Amino acid sequence: MSLKPLSLFMSGVPTDGLAPAVESLPRLLRAFADSWFRVRAALYDFGEGRRTIGAWDVTTPWRDEVRAPGEALSTCTERDEEWVLQALADRISHASSRPLARLEIELRGAVACVDADGVHWCGRWWPDGTAYPLTTLRFVFTPEAVDMVVTWPVSGFPLSATRPGEDGLADGDPMSAWRQRCWTLPAIAVAPDLLGMLPASIRWSFDTGGGAVLAVLRSSLGSWSSALNQGTAGPGTEPRPAAHDDYVADLVASLHGGGSSCGEALRSLIERPDHDPRVRAAIEGLRNDATPCLVEPPALWGPISLLAEFALAAARWDDGDFRSVTIQTAVPLSAKDMAVAERSLGLPPVDSSFEDPLTAGAARYARLRALQAVDIVEVPIEPTTAISNLTPVVSNPTLALESSSESATTHAVQQLETGGDPRIWALEDLARAPLAAPEVVATVTRLLVDHTPCDLDGETTGELCLLAAAALAAIRASVGDASPVHVEFVQPLSERALVEAAGALDVEGTWAGRRQLDADERVTLFSRLRAHGVLKTVQADLRAPVDFKRLARH
C-alpha cells in the first residue's frame, strides 16, 4: 500500500536554552490534548538508547482504543493521555540531571476529526489488521534549535480530502478537509510560544509526498505556511472552498468555452492536475483544437491542442508514470518570433482594433498558421520539458561512437565492472565527461537493469540504473543522438521523504536521525522501504542532463 504523507515542519531557537524547552514539552502536549492531539504512546532517546511508553507497536490497541465492526478507523473514548505525559515528564526530569546535547521524542496518539456534528477523537487506521497512525509528532531538541515535525501519514488525512476505508483509500469531502485544517493548524501554531522560542527565529514549512490527493492542497498549504510564519494563522486563513462538483463543473465549462478561459484552465491543470473523469474527457476533446491562445505567459502563443497534450501528460506524471510522450504540434511562437516571421513575409501589422494584447497575439499567430509559416513538428515531452523550449527533434542518427584513448576506455570499463563505489564514481564521471567508446556504451547499457540502491547526488537516494541512464544519455548527447534512454526504476526519494515513509511504516533503525542521515544510512533505509513494497516503480525516457531531484518523491 502506497501512502503519501503530509508533514508540517517547525524550527526555531529556544530563548532560554535546551533544558527549559525540553521541560516545557509536557505542558505543550497538554495544550494539544485540549484541542487536536492526545498522546497515547511515546518513543524517546535521551542518549541511552530508544525507549517507549505505551503501546508503540502497530498491532496492540491503546488502552481506550475502540473499533466498531466494519469500521476501519478506531476511536479513543477517554481522556487517557495524562499517564503517558506524566511518565514522559518523569523521564525528562531524570534526563535533565545530566548534561544534555540532543534529545529526540516521537509521539503517537488520537487526533481530533471535525465534521458538521462536532469533534470526534479518531485513533488509528486498521485496513488489514495493522494499525497506521493518523498523526505523529516528532521533536528534536538541541542547544541550537528545536525542531517539531507533525506528520499525517495516511495521505494527509484528515487534513486532505482522503477517506480511509477497509479496502484502502478513497476520495473524501473537500469541505471536511478544509474544516479540519481551520481547526487543526491554528491549534498547532501555539507550539513556539509554549516551547519558549524566539519569534524571529521560527520557520514553518509543509512537505507533501506527491500524488494527486496532496497536489490539490498546494495553494491551501501555501496560505497556511505564510500565515504561520507571520503569526496570523486562524480559522479565516483559508477561504471556504466550493463543493468539488461545483469546481469540476466550472472547470469543464471553461474548457468547453474556448478562447482565453480555456487556455487559462489548461495552464492551471498543467500546474495542478485534476483526475476527475469529466475533466479528462473535456481535455481529450481539445487535442485537435488548433485555436491559438496564450500557452505560456507573458508572451508565448500556440494552439490549444498543445496545452491539452501537456495537461494530459501532467496528469500521467502526477500518477508516477514518467514516460515521455511524443506529440505533433505547431511550434509555439513568442511575440519576437512572430515579428521576425511577419517582417520576412512582408506582412502589414495586425488590425489595430484589437485592444486586448492577448487577442492581438492570438490573431497574429492564427494569420501565420494560415500562411503555413509555422512549423508542424513531432516532439517528445517529459516532466522536465517546458513549453517555451520546444524545438523540432533531429532524426535519431545511428550512434556514431567516437574513438577514445585506449587507456581511458580500459580504466572506465574496469571501474564499471568492479562494482561498488568505483562503479558509481565511473558513472558519475561519464555523466559529466561522456566517453563514447563501444566497450563503455555496452557496459553502461547492461547496467540499466541494475537496481542496486545507491546515493544519486548527495541528496537523493535511488537505484544504480538511474546513474547508468544519466551516463548513457550524456554519451548519446555528446555524439548528436537525440533519442532518450528508457529505464524502469523504483522512484528515488529525498531524505525527508525517506524518513517520513519510514515513520509511517514504523521501520526501525536509522530513520530516527531525521534530516541528519549520511549516505550509507539513506541507502540502508531506502533498501528497507523497498523491501516493504511501499515504493513505486516507474518508467521514464531520459535525456541529458538528468535531474534526479525532478524524478524524486519529496
Q: How are the elements arranged and paired?
A:
Layout: E1 6-12, H1 18-23, H2 25-33, E2 37-45, E3 50-53, E4 65-66, E5 73-76, H3 82-95, E6 103-115, E7 118-125, E8 132-133, E9 136-141, E10 146-152, E11 162-165, E12 168-171, H4 174-188, H5 191-194, E13 203-208, H6 212-215, H7 218-230, H8 244-257, H9 259-271, H10 277-284, E14 292-296, E15 300-303, H11 304-318, E16 325-330, E17 333-334, H12 335-345, H13 357-370, E18 376-381, H14 406-418, H15 420-432, H16 438-446, E19 453-455, E20 460-463, H17 464-478, E21 485-490, E22 493-494, H18 495-505, H19 519-531, E23 537-542, H20 548-551
Antiparallel strand pairs: 1-10, 1-13, 2-3, 2-6, 4-5, 5-7, 6-7, 6-9, 7-8, 9-10, 11-12, 14-15, 15-17, 16-18, 19-20, 20-22, 21-23
Helix pairs in contact: 2-3, 8-9, 8-10, 9-11, 12-13, 14-15, 14-16, 15-17, 18-19
Description:
With 554 residues, this protein is of the alpha+beta class. Helices cover 39% and strands 22% of the residues. It has 20 helices and 23 strands. The strands form six sheets. Strands 1, 2, 3, 4, 5, 6, 7, 8, 9, 10 and 13 form an eleven-stranded antiparallel sheet that branches. A three-stranded antiparallel sheet has the order 14-15-17. Strands 19-20-22 form a three-stranded antiparallel sheet. A hairpin with a 4-residue loop joins strand 2 and strand 3 (50-53). Helix 2 (25-33) packs antiparallel against helix 3, helix 14 runs parallel beside helix 16 and helix 15 (420-432) runs parallel beside helix 17 (464-478). The longest helix is centred in the first third of the chain and has 15 residues, at 174-188.
